[in-house]
């Protein structure tokens, strides 16, 4: 078959690419929803116009993608663009008309093999100077905001019993359980403070698991010619869609488990804004945006490389209006939803925070104090039970006596730490795990750096 005949045959197989009357109508930012695995997800777009993205931006993305391989098929391109095959073909036929793409042949019924022409490769090089993004097609910023807000608003609320169950492994006062339950059931922010080692981080993690479920987030959003990547394999755990829905959902969106993002002392004020890569020429969303629909925990607040008051002021507007403002390098200000549970955990006292405007906007504040001796004993016994380790009679009383003699504050994390070091010791000696005075003594010395004590073998 000669080139002329091949082109005629393929043209006859493709439906005319004329704009429908609906193509001039505005597209609702809220995705069309379909039933997916017992829930609702975004339906695959039926036209380029329905993507909510300027078709020329999709064409530019397709040229950059095509430039990464010598040749490709319809299915290959559709899979990487996360678009239906018919839409990716529509893009490549437009590129064929502009002489950026040549058709090498058919790869099956209504499936083709393409390659960039020399003119197309020159165009790809020009496009790469403005944006180096190559990957799934973006969704609009408006669509992202609408769908995230809708999902959070539709989510069922946790009950008091749900929160108590999630906190069941922690030894807390009734006041702590009640305040944590208020935060967990309302989804409001929570400020945890108190001396170190008493369960602030553990409580924050437990509260995240109070609300189950998934959330749909986009691979990226497009704002004009700029791309902001949202999906992050290090922060997000995908929850795959059943194969029967693969072609029905909009694959520009990823269904994930509710995200749980933790930032510690490494966080800077710059990390809370868009990060532009000069090498890749697109933006990475800040971590709190990646936490939308889930929980964002700022751990060890006060140890960041930024003034605490400056960091707190950063959250005032988002907490007040559920919207955050981010700035592109051009100076353009964009709005993104702030729909997450913010938990701030700190060893600082409220008097050292010194920002009443921030504290007023936090939903709840909770002081986690050092445990009482009775609470310490319960934590010790509970953890030993979970590790299937017997606690000899009188052992905990001996440990508490040593705390008093050495004038050490009790901390809720230390029963776990001491028991784990006893397990290390027994593994090293290749003996069954036991909590004797001797193993506790060595564990104590290795943990606190204290002097060893001499004990008889009798308990």
Count of helix runs: 18
**Assigned CATH superfamily of the largest domain:** P-loop containing nucleotide triphosphate hydrolases
**Spatial strand arrangement across the major sheet:** 6-9-10-14-13
CATH class of the largest domain: Alpha Beta
Second rung of CATH, namely the architecture of the largest domain: 3-Layer(aba) Sandwich
The third-level CATH topology of the largest domain is Rossmann fold
- The percentage helix is 25-40%
Can you give a write-up of this model?
- This protein is of the alpha/beta class.
- The protein folds into 3 domains: 3-17 and 26-52 and 54-135, Orthogonal Bundle (Arc Repressor Mutant, subunit A), CATH 1.10.10; 142-367, P-loop containing nucleotide triphosphate hydrolases (Rossmann fold); 373-448.
- The chain contains 18 helices and 19 strands.
- The chain has a 5-stranded mixed β-sheet with strand order 6-9-10-14-13. Strands 12-15-18-7-19 form a 5-stranded parallel β-sheet. A 3-stranded antiparallel β-sheet has the order 3-5-4.
- α2 (55-66) crosses α4 (85-97) and α17 packs across α18.
- It is elongated and about 85 Å long.
- The model is unreliable at 1-22 (pLDDT under 50).
